[in-house]
Amino acid sequence: TGALMANTSGGANVAVGADAMLQNVDGSSNVAVGRWALAVSLSPQQNVAVGHTALFRAAASRNVAIGHEAG
Predict the structure, then answer these.
(1) Contact (Cβ atoms closer than 8 angstroms) between residue 47 and residue 30
(2) Distance from CA of residue 27 to its chain's centroid?
(3) Which of 1, 6, 43, 70 has the most CB atoms around it within 10 Å of its CB?
(4) Could you tell me whether strands 48-50 and 14-16 are parallel, antiparallel, or unpaired per DSSP bridges?
(5) Which DSSP helix (H) or strand (E) runs through 47?
């Protein structure tokens, strides 16, 4: 629940898991798998986050983070 909740104009995103990409507003081309993955990243671009809280506060684009609290 809550995955991509704040998304308004971002496209081509995949969010699987409770609150994955929760606060994404206009980030595009991202993959977030896991609870709170990419959760507090407002405008991420081209990131892959797999794992509980992976890339939780990503401020940059084009990152890959795999694992619990990775990134």
Answers:
(1) yes
(2) 9
(3) 70
(4) unpaired
(5) none
Instruction: Write out the E strands in the chain.
Output: 14-16, 31-33, 48-50, 64-66
The DSSP code for 63 is -
Q: What's the pLDDT tens digit per position in 1-48?
A: 789 999 989 899 999 999 999 999 999 999 999 999 999 988 889 999
Residues in the chain: 71
Q: Any idea which residue has 């206009």 for tokens?
A: 26
Residue-level pLDDT at 45 = 95
Give the pair of three-digit tokens for residue 71: 């990134």
